[in-house]
Write a structure and sequence with these properties.
Two copies of one chain form a homodimer. Chain A has two domains: about 10-165 and about 280-350, Zn peptidases (Aminopeptidase); about 170-275, Alpha-Beta Plaits (2-Layer Sandwich), CATH 3.30.70. In chain A, β4 and β5 form a beta hairpin. Helix content of chain A is about 30%, strand content about 25%. Chain A is α+β, with helices and mostly antiparallel strands. Chain A has helices at about 10-15, 25-40, 95-110, 135-140, 145, 190-195, 195-205, 255-265, 285-295, 310-315, 340-350; strands at about 45-50, 50-55, 65-70, 80-85, 90, 120-125, 150-155, 160-165, 170-175, 180, 210-215, 215, 220-230, 235, 240-250, 270-275, 300, 320, 335. In chain A, the strands form five sheets. In chain A, strands 1-2-6-3-7-18-8-17 form an eight-stranded mixed sheet, sandwiched between helices. Chain A contains eleven helices and 19 strands. The two termini of chain A are about 30 Å apart. Chains A and B meet through α6, α7, β13, β14 and β15 of A and α6, α7, β13, β14 and β15 of B. Chains A, B: Pfam families: M20_dimer, Peptidase_M20. Chains A, B: Its cofactor is Co(2+); Zn(2+). Chains A, B: Keywords: Amino-acid biosynthesis, Cobalt, Diaminopimelate biosynthesis, Hydrolase, Lysine biosynthesis, Metal-binding, Zinc. Chains A, B: Homodimer.
Chain lengths: ~350, ~350
Amino acid sequence: MQLDLAADVVTLTEQLVNIESVSHHEQVLADAVEAALRELPHLSVVRRGHTVVARTDLGRGERVVIAGHLDTVPVNDNLPARRDDSAGILHGLGTCDMKGGDAVILKLAADLPEPSRDLTFVLYEAEEVESTFNGLRKLTESDPDLLQADFAILMEPSNAGVEAGCQGTLRAEVRTSGERAHSARSWQGVNAIHAAAEVLNRLAGYEPRRPELDGLTYHEGLNAVGIRGGVAGNVVPDECVVEVNFRFAPDRSTAEAEAFVRDFFDGFDVTITDLAPGAMPGLDRPAAKAFVESVGGEVNPKFGWTDVAQFTQLGIPAVNYGPGDPLFAHKQDEHVPVEHLTRCEQTLKEWLA
Amino acid sequence: MQLDLAADVVTLTEQLVNIESVSHHEQVLADAVEAALRELPHLSVVRRGHTVVARTDLGRGERVVIAGHLDTVPVNDNLPARRDDSAGILHGLGTCDMKGGDAVILKLAADLPEPSRDLTFVLYEAEEVESTFNGLRKLTESDPDLLQADFAILMEPSNAGVEAGCQGTLRAEVRTSGERAHSARSWQGVNAIHAAAEVLNRLAGYEPRRPELDGLTYHEGLNAVGIRGGVAGNVVPDECVVEVNFRFAPDRSTAEAEAFVRDFFDGFDVTITDLAPGAMPGLDRPAAKAFVESVGGEVNPKFGWTDVAQFTQLGIPAVNYGPGDPLFAHKQDEHVPVEHLTRCEQTLKEWLA
């Protein structure tokens, strides 16, 4: 498989989409990306697993990371890519999440031999599966120096606009307990599902915090995302588990988020099962400011968790900026507007000229 | 396989236990029971499936049904029967539920050629599985005349005491609905699990009714026996289902029980999934009164649902009276006290002499 970096960004997106790369099966695509980048004499290329890093080294005053993942969710009868020229849309798995963004990255790599800022391009594996496999996360551990930069752009779909930072996410199990009994003699037991009423009452009464950070309004959320309990149709149950998901603004640390949830469910048994930090928007940093000015338009907060948080861990401010509407990510009818692809490419080229 | 009706009631229980008869596999035991009863010239025997009915026809003023089921729950490393003579206990699957009771029935059939009341012995299949298979229920439909009587005794384990009538049981699903959304933008959805708070609040605040009927105090119960909801760890769920079980005193009809539950959960979507009537104790009937006087001791209400309700449907008052502690039914260490077996046999023989 060969990629043609001289093709236009839409054709290049199509080529990337048509090299299937469901998570854990990125090798063929990573090989093609690596081979294409190695043809470019102004870049030094490093390969780690199925993650490819390519860097300029022009001694500029600032360095910017531009990153995108190579993998997709499973195929859902939506390959190969299909162009609808009259609607100006490219359909197919990965067009939105996020091979459109990857195509923009490859166009920048090929067409900007002398960018105004040094660039580090990262095309990585396994973003759509458990974080232990995530290529960007692995890189932050194996090669933190390779990622050092003043600013990072993650080309996750954001309607070709800037979504700054991201909220953190915490998952917990809130458990009530009781005592089993035959339901025909229920007064001999204690019903753990009835005891969960208070857990749900607190959730139903939750008032979200909406802090303003760097001029952006975040919006927290605390939700039951699952509930289970019950032994049999004739047994008073002795356990009920409410799974909750707390999405928290990036001004809270993970420790503060955990303390909030433990306090919120005070009196109940709380087990934290997943916890990932948010990312501050960092719009006060010069590189970020310049980027936002160059892109223009409204800057929005990112509510969902994305890999921008990986950069926060390294102290690098980061934003999401990429083609495609995130609402169509992971959908059977995934697609990207051609105009998003060309606009992202143009805007970044102007900023880096 | 052959049964020896001349053996004592404990030995006969042992013989019955050692002919395995898990539900749907009662044929060998039913054949042995039928063959033994056909040896007795004072009885006329009818076979339906693996259910055996044997009747005296002496023209007495009253007729009494004495019934027991032949099947057991699955084997759980508790066969063959094991006697512990020092403790006076017989161990093994079915000793308690309810081959001890069946042995008493067979002893009465063999030893009372001229009982003071006409007798109808019913030994039936498939009590431990869905009611469509239940041999007694089938008989009420196929041969209601065969079951006609003034009084019925069901030899379910009741600690060799009288437990009168039984409570009815109703199962329902109470459903809340909402609107899915990504949990990172939860305000765009409506959380169906949070909406279930009110369902659990009502359950937690439920006050059971304890009506006195024929001098016995029943005790109702309304419990969540299961709860489920949730789509994925990052989705605001659009449905939550609370499974409830209502155990109602026998002065309520099934229609009244259903109306109570629908009213209790007014405003929620309620689906009735199972509904079985209770049985009035019927202790005002002459045959029942005479039986209770003869047995002596305290009469208790039956809280759990049993097949006595089948007799209620035919207008026949019925009580539970059998050897064994029901708490050991369906347990690996199922057992019956020898004293319960001999006491039940003796008491019934005296009452029928």
